[in-house]
């Protein structure tokens, strides 16, 4: 029951902070809280660590998507190898 309360508290905190900071936090907090509870009976510590890791991964993915959108596409390349265009 304590784990459920911890997870609900982490979810409420993530939602209160806002969408920008909560991206990835909720999912990480749930996974970290459950893992921390079963591994060493430290669900709150696991939820906090999971939240931080989830936010880190979400930020990395967001930056990678931005890089892909802003990178120039090479000119003159063809995806249809073997066709002569006749």
The overall pLDDT average reads 77
Based on CA atoms alone, the radius of gyration comes out at: 21 Å
User: Which structural category do the helix and sheet elements fall into?
Assistant: mainly alpha
Overall shape: it is elongated
Indicate the proportion of strand residues: under 5%
Main sheet properties: none
Layout of helices and strands, plus pairs?
Elements: H1 2-17, H2 19-22, H3 25-40, H4 43-70
Helix pairs in contact: 1-3, 1-4, 3-4
Provide a descriptive summary of the structure in words.
The mean pLDDT is 77. Helices cover 74% and strands 0% of the residues. 27% of the residues are buried. It has 4 helices and no strands. The chain is an all-alpha fold.
What keywords describe this structure?
86 residues, mainly alpha, single chain
Describe what is shown at a glance:
The chain is mainly α. The chain has helices at 2-17, 19-22, 25-40, 43-70.
